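Interim report, section 4.2 (structural modelling).
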Amino acid sequence: MDALASHLGKLDKAEAEEVVREIESHIHDVIDQAEARGDVVDVVALLAGFGPPPALAAQYVAHVQTGAPPPSGFRVIQRVTRTVTRGLYYSMGAFGYSIAIGFLLLALAKLMYPSLVGAWTANGGDSVAVTWSGSPYPHARELLGYWLLPIALLAAAWCAELTRRVLRVLRRGLA
Amino acid sequence: MSEDALHEKWQIQLRKGALELVILAALRERPVYGLALLRHLQRFATTDIAEGTLYPLLDRLKREGLLTASWVQEGENRPRKYYRLTASGEQKRVALEQAWRQSVADIDALLAAPAGSEPPRKGTDND
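Predicted structure of the assembly:
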């Protein structure tokens, strides 16, 4: 199984583990059923039925190497990952994580300077501004108060998680 | 090449052409797990394949959306991966089965009438 797993590197970790798990399940089923009949299992013959691990693994990764059509619904992701460069990868990471850090800093600033940091509205709600230096408008009304803190923290966590998932997809397209 | 080797080569080609159809057909009524499917196919010489042929083929059919798979544990038994046909798989099965039956009918008609004799009627399933 280790030899097989080592040749499945072109698959996702989850896909490779699924392949190994299924083959192990088959082997256990054969052994269990033989024992139930009182037979002895020829393990060598059983394993020989799968062929050499490199040849078996090659059949599972052939679609990756030859560019066989992906399952329907994944064509857009395939187009994106095929042209991913390191510049795009790191740019997306910097962009996403910087927004997350911005939200985190907003939350910390609200904690430290509650009267200066907030979301203010004016003109009957026609404009909203998030500022770090007090109300930007005369007669402005603060919208969220201390609720800005958990909202900013949630937004930071959401941005960070979204960035992580996008980078994970893009990483597959890197050489 | 010896006659046995030629015959074996022909069998392999025939098996390659029919394998996808017989797998889809085997799953048309209920989900089946890998070992049970293998034993089912190994009942006949034409479809007597090895594990190393079956499982990658099942993986390909799943990636093509013709099958789905899920791990099921029955009672105290070890979990098994069961395969079932999708709607696309059922459509493909019907199409392949029609094509297969037409091919068999055509070949039967050609076997019945060598070249140069009365032109064979186009083969039908009702011949």
